[in-house]
TrEMBL record:
It is found in: Cytoplasm. This is Serine hydroxymethyltransferase. It catalyses: (6R)-5,10-methylene-5,6,7,8-tetrahydrofolate + glycine + H2O = (6S)-5,6,7,8-tetrahydrofolate + L-serine. The modification N6-(pyridoxal phosphate)lysine is found at K263. Its EC number is 2.1.2.1. Keywords: Amino-acid biosynthesis, Cytoplasm, Methyltransferase, One-carbon metabolism, Pyridoxal phosphate, Transferase. CDD domains: SHMT.
Length: 445
């Protein structure tokens, strides 16, 4: 039987008061002894300290356009680097397999309550270690090995967990794939419906790693109902925009919503699952003990911090700026001669074709990297290719927006990408000059 723990809000309040009144630091506050000690690390392990410094410099000295990345706040980093990292906490609040969980239980309860409020969900599980772990748990809750699943085909933008033969999903389930129209790049819902009728899947997955437009969850729901399938929304990319009310929410439509917490949402690396009350127990058991052991309580606390941040007006303004910046960047790329899939974006995410500038996607990504611009390649719709696809570039505007860049800078970023792809010798210096004006972690004060 799991050990039952009691929560102690009064202990937390007392600890907070003691810390606030403690002393000598700025504002009468002395940081706790466990606060991450970089100077100590530098002395003890200069090799790893050097890696941390080099990575921080790399992140600040280039343009970080990987669509799945962002710069988490110092508050999120503080929770990640806290003694909650030391705590084992198998199970759920109030029903743990380890003793001493009464304090971390509060963190998980707060994370769950904040996630439920933020997304209007009846149930939230905040323990998945990653987006992939969240999808694994969703399948574990709803499916049996060998079941048929309909998802976006990988070459069209499905994630590895949507049926890749190299992933558990493709090994354990029988996936059928839908795609996007090679001419428009848009989802063809009639094709999804026809495939659902033909394959009679046990679950339909909607979600993508590179689709720049909003999904119509109501149509997916209708198709799933018609064939008696579960609807799983893998909202890893849009969930931050959903939090801000800038993208349609899958919560009212999907049986299970899987997400990551580290993209536009700007939390720690990790996953979460939202669902209705009727699936709550199955989802919880699918996460622990079926697919995971103890939750990482520092990450759970950091997720709570991120959900708290995402509920603010400041985050809503940030998310609006992300979309405005992505649109400005897409427009700038098109002006520079890189066609943008679907002609633009509804989200933080853009895919574009560098071929008119005389470079294939890998070459273009390498040239951008040489200029300090970090982005990915992904498959784009291409009617001229017999496969209907050809590699292109994928990028997102979440990180540069966190740095404080606006539409003017986003337009400049489009020009810098084009300059880099054309091997303009000034591209690197111009990129560094831009990013140095917008440090991701400016010194406080
Ligand atoms: C649609 C989608 N699903 C799942 C994942 C997996 O997330 P993770 O890398 O945290 O496992 C991602 C990651 O980018 C994603 O885009």
């Amino acid at each position: 039987m799991p050990a039952t723990t009691t929560s102690s809000r009064s202990d937390i309040t007392a600890a907070r008061r003691e810390a606030a009144g403690a002393g000598a630091g700025p504002g009468g506050y002395t940081p706790p002894a466990w606060t991450p000690d970089f100077a100590g690390l530098l002395e003890q392990d200069p090799e790893i300290a050097g890696v941390l410094l080099a990575e921080a410099a790399r992140q600040g000295d280039g343009l970080q356009l990987v669509a799945a990345e962002n710069f988490a706040s110092r508050a999120v980093l503080a929770a990640l680097g806290s003694p909650l990292a030391n705590k084992y906490a198998e199970g759920y609040p109030g029903a743990r397999h380890h003793g001493g969980c009464e304090v971390v239980d509060l963190a998980e309860r707060l994370a769950v309550e904040r996630a439920k409020a933020l997304f209007g969900a009846e149930h939230a599980n905040v323990q998945p270690h990653s987006g992939s772990s969240a999808v694994l748990a969703a399948y574990a809750a709803l499916l049996r090995p060998g079941d048929t699943v309909l998802a976006m085909a990988l070459p069209h933008g499905g994630h590895l967990t949507h049926g890749s033969p190299a992933n558990f999903s493709g090994r354990w389930f029988d996936f059928a794939g839908y795609g996007v129209d090679p001419h428009t790049g848009l989802l063809d819902y009639d094709e999804v419906r026809a495939l659902a009728r033909r394959h009679r899947p046990k679950a339909i997955v909607c979600g993508s790693i590179c689709y720049p437009r909003h999904l119509d969850y109501a149509v997916f729901r209708e198709i799933a109902d018609e064939v008696g399938a579960y609807l799983v929304a893998d909202a890893a990319h849009p969930i931050g925009l959903v939090a801000a009310g800038l993208a349609p929410s899958p919560v009212p439509y999907a049986d299970v919503v899987c997400a990551t917490t580290h993209k536009v949402l700007r939390g720690p690396r990790g996953g979460m699952i939202l669902c209705g009350a009727e699936l709550a127990e199955r989802i919880d058991r699918a996460v622990f003990p079926f697919t995971q052991g103890g939750a990482q309580m520092n990450a759970v606390a950091a997720k709570a911090v991120a959900f708290g941040e995402a509920a603010t007006d400041a985050f809503a303004a940030y998310a609006r700026q992300v979309v405005a910046n992505a649109r400005a960047l897409a427009g700038s790329l098109a002006e520079e001669g890189l066609p943008v899939t679907t002609g633009g974006t509804d989200t933080h995410l853009i895919t574009a074709d560098p071929a008119p500038l005389g470079a294939d996607a890998r070459t273009a990504r390498g040239r951008c990297a040489a200029a300090g611009i970090v982005l990915d390649t992904c498959a784009l719709p291409c009617p001229e290719d017999p496969s209907g696809r050809r590699p292109g570039l994928r990028m997102g505007a979440a990180a540069l927006t966190t740095q404080g860049m606006g539409e003017d800078e986003a337009v400049r970023v489009g020009a810098l990408i084009a300059a880099a792809v054309r091997e303009d010798p000034g591209a690197r210096a111009a990129t560094v000059a831009l990013v140095r004006r917008f440090p991701p972690y400016p010194h406080p004060g």
